[in-house]
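Q: Protein A?
A:
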Amino acid sequence: MKNFEYGDKYITEKEIAYAVPSMVIGVGILTLPRLLATTTKTDGYIALLVAGGLSIIITWLIAALPSRFPGQSFYSYTGRIATKPVALLLTIGISLYFLALTSYLIRVVSMVAKQYLFDITPLEVIAFLFLLIIIYGGAGGSIGVLRLNLMFVPIILLISFTVVLFNIGLMEFQNLYPFLKSDLKSYFVGIKDSHFAFAGTGILLFYISLVKQPIKVPKYAGLSMVIPTILYLIIHLSCILVFSYSVTGTLLYPTIELAKEVQIPGGFFERFESIFFTVWIMAIFNTTLMAFDISILALSSVVTSWSRMTWIYILSPIAFVMAMLPQNFNAVSLFGNFLSYVGMGLTQAIPILLLVTGCWDRVEIEERGFVVGMAIDLIENENKDGTDQYEVTFQYVIPAGFGYTQGGGAQEAFKNVTETGESLHEIGKELAIEVSRSPYYEHLQLVVISEDVAKSEGALENILDFLIRDHEMRRSTKVVISKGEPAIKILETEPKVEKLPTMYIDSILENHFKTAKLLMPTVVGDLHENLLQENNFVIPSIRTKDDLIKVDGGAVFKGLSNKLIGFIDENEVMGLNFIVSEVKGGTIKTNYKNSLVVYEIERADSKVEPIVKSEDNVEFTIKIKTEGKIVQSFKPVDFLNQKEIDQIEKALEKSLESTVKNTIERTQKEIKVDILGLNRILEHKRYDSWQKMKKHWDKGEGTFPTAKINIDTNVIIRTTGTSTKTTN
């Protein structure tokens, strides 16, 4: 077999163009959205674009230097420009820097893998296995390292854009408001953090010597930085649109949480984040491998008599020891920041993917206890000091219950296990001691919180902390409030048409598109955002009725205290849904000529316009438009008569207006908390005015309870069904 000409000696501009984004994309893709959301809030994309533009220019300038000295090492051409002693110090310094970067990347991938994949595997074991793979990859030489990028970079981009694509349905564009509200200092901090994420172009100082004709390399290298710029921008905007800036700023690795939100239609692949992890590990593998390779290349150019493997044997233990030195996450972050400054813009590469290694610590599926539902109740004055305890019921799935025993009898498909304790984390640990199968929360669908718990000081925050801190929990888990009865009673209901009570309740909550009297399901991610932003919010409330489950209106929570302050009924929920434009279907009934007419909603929309006269005098006009058809009439009606159609439309408009007004009146006069979203309307449309009145908007005798709210309804009958008359 004939070898490819120059295949073992040279590379082309193409390999360089792939190597630059491969070196950049890595740790930053996981953490950059959090850093920008913390500093620049919704304006992070501006800092990203500025940093990306600067990185393109800087990359071109860095590549221009070695391109003028074809075939020469960094040590060689630096010696010609400066002096040999200076070149020696710079070469050794850069080698040590890339070795430290290798250690940092080994530590980061070990921490992430331990948190999300191998939580019971020692950190040192993960790091050591990863280092072994780096050694194996580095033994083959620099050419092989660079050509790995040709295969891995397209896969990384494909999976990253797939994550964004499958999250489009969860994006809310109002999360981008308000625009351009960050101060100058915040922009500079955001640009600095973004610039660190674009670091890693220092590899060009060494790899360009492997290009036979490097004259075009600066152009290719500069243009290649467009790839991470676009990728970072899309990932950052997706995190803000899905989670909001306030939530993104609290997530340790927002991009991983974004991947966890992906749900493949059809349910044939349940954990898409496993693909994302695989690809990310590939990416960080290439990044670490190139950093390690540069460290070897630098020292080999100084001491030419030693072989590559000799340097690998010397540097590998040093890299492992440095990786294990930081004691915690904060120390690792400080280590990374130190490297960013030391690198002077030539460092902090964001890695390609590492192949998941080792599965000796896996948990077999037969040993997992799949928890699908939780019910949280309160036991008052249970402790010796008079404090309360939680009583938590876990609903386990019994797989055998979905089939039949050999005798033909059906078996229970679930089992409820109840534990008590002062914290949910403590209860979870106690559960693992008493139940043979360790609790596994990846399939948790529903959390039921009792009314007593919801009214307790700090209880909701404690529950949410447990739900978002555990890596097995999903932000899409639904949350409901049990009204007037213990939460455990909800999970003890045995449905007639479903095997699991949790699935039964979940199916009912998903019927919101069939009726306007159901709230949109509230998920853990929504609660997290509301608590961070101190929003008032409403959670669906449920209760039992004749051994069935009924969704009975909503539970109202006040933003500052995060405590339950009251309930609204299903008709008030209907009015609320029309105001906030969350109606997906349902009916409107009216009395026309002393007879009932039923109108089915096909689409509905609302627009709210605020008029701010002063801080204490605000007026709103809510315009509601709905289109649909007549599905039932209890009186002979000629639907070919436009005049009669107009009269029915007016009757329906009055009925809808009455429903909405009742919701507004109850909210302003009794609840006195803005759950209508009017505060967000003011923030988006009258930002300056809102800043003056937000402190007293719905607190005490604030502006909200006295605000004038006008209702303008417009009901359009598009069709009347297949009959033009009911009777003669």
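Q: Protein B?
A:
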Amino acid sequence: MQAQTHSPTGIFGNQIRYVVPLFQRPYVWSEGEQWAPLWEDVCSVADAVLQAPAPMGYGGPTVAPHFLGAIVLEQQATLAGYIAVRHVIDGQQRLTTLQILLDAVQEVVEAHGRSVDAQALHSMVTNNPAVTQAPEETFKVWPTSRDQQVFRLVMDNDQQVPPELAENAIAQAHRFFRTKTLEWSGVATEPEQAAERLGALAQTLAHHLRMVVIDLEPGDNAQVIFETLNHRGTPLLAADLIKNYLFQVATAQNADLEKLYAQFWAQFDNEYWRAPVAQGRLYRPRIDVFLNYWLTVKLLKEVATDRIFVEFRDLVRREQSPVAEIMNELAEAASIYESLDKLPESSVPARFHYRVVKALDSAAVTPFLLWLLRWNQDALRISERDRALNAVESWIVRRTLCRLTNQGVNRVVVELLRTLVRSGSPSNAGALTEEFLGAQTADSRLWPDDEWFIRSLSEEPLYKMLTRGRLRMIIEALEDDVRSEKSEAGRCPRNLTVEHVMPQEWKAHWDDGRDLIEAAQRDQLVQTLGNLTLLTGKLNSSVSNGPWTMVDASGNVLEDVGKRAALLRHSTLKLNAYLIVDHPKKWTDDDIRSRGLDMATRATEIWSRPGGLEQNAPLVSPRIVTLAGADAGGEPVPSPVVQHTGRYRALWDWLQRQHLDLVTVSFEDVEEVLNFKLPASARNYPAFWIGREGGGIRGAIADAGWRAAGVNVVDEHVTFVRGQADF
């Protein structure tokens, strides 16, 4: 390759076309990241040109040039005509931006500056029409397919950009540079100086900017150079690298590139696919997330996000298939992925997508969903497909509500896909999925049975344990279950407000003279499922914290509207209708427990577990005791205590205030007590917690009269036992 430094005049001064191949990504530069910094740099140079002393003799003022970066070009054979053509292998974003900047300034100079400056700029953005053979040949730069229409419009001073294209990045860039040129030149504020300032700006753009132009020679591998410049450092999407690679392979296979692009890839070059979406705690472009899922299904293994391109490239090399087949398979899978938010609301796949992928934030199951949806009804009956989805939904919901980790879901999904693929046919996907999940016995994979599920769902303070989205989904599912097919309202509305029936601040109107221990027990009870419902709007605090009826627990008649009447007025839910009808006069602790047990029992039918599986409810409840629950009421049980002043004193103090002899907490709960993060060794080595010797956290636990009886670094929880108690 050959590298030389050129000014914009040297790059655009001749009759030449720089064509961005269709396999390149569309224009994506933005104001904050690129346009504004570039404009500031150009203005700095233009100010220097204005302030430079007049030259002696020939030439312009001596001003240090500004470096814009590098572009990589590949010369193309010109069969006929007078205009040379080069493909832009790298640097198309800055080259396109420079053309937009030149044209925007040229438009302002033509209207408010000197004609000689306008003509000089015009010669750098258009070729001589007399030597062109097609309309697009007049443009010095020709972008990729998606951007050609708007580029043609903004580069023509006589054309207007229609509203539907006004938000395109190219249209925005041209508008930005034109506005900034008008402001900087002072056309409106200092018109007598505008021509001089515009002349300095024209000189800057023509002569005082520099680019390194790298021309590839015959035999240079453009694909390798592209990967080297982009994949190893700059923020190209994995999809951009894949697109480039596919069309390079298509070129080698003598495929029709325009046809391949229009038929299979054009759909990916829009804002929907490049928009950021959540994947775990990070946000990544939707197309890269999709490609990750597609590769998981294709390769039947987990694919790290930083290896998407490498895994895809290696797959293409191994299969040696026509590119058209691979792109067709990608396009079909993309159509399924894009349809996930548009599935019929009453369908099982739509319900699964909402409950599992969205509400429970378990996007790791998406490859499994895509695999099921790819089959037609001849290969996979709808009933069998739905059976498979129901099994996975039940497995994840039960594990979530039993406070079991879902960190290994991606590995389970991959193993499940392998099982389904190796069966040779998707026809028994439902039965195989139930069998696979039912056979899991490890704590990180087991499918909790009904006893465990009911206990967790009815007794745990779900309002404190779950995010609002997850809790709302659980109650929505219970509401859907009690609605008949003849219900006028159909399915339960989404995004309702979670409301306590007996308020959290119950002491004002619900206090019946209970002691501290009983009060603490009620504090825990009001957070359980039996006391929760959904409303169409949030109640004001006076109603929300009010009594059940117009008469409070002491028999006082109140003027405020009772909670029962407010539920009646603000809700059309069946759950609330039963609540109001069944409890006309009062709502008690026993009512909460009874309703919670009923709701939990019905939940076992919504998220059923196949019969015949081994029971796995632990002898000791696996409940992760929340801090509020562990601190509840009463006097602490005496235990030998030694004063502790170390870093972990907060845990030492917290353990002394517990009223149970066994407490199981998550590592996150411990961090909440300590008010700082645990070291990495806490999550990797049980020995960090266990033992009575030494300082650190072990010393704090021992000094408080407790011991760590069990540590699960996979599920990230620890069980503390008081003194020598046996469990």
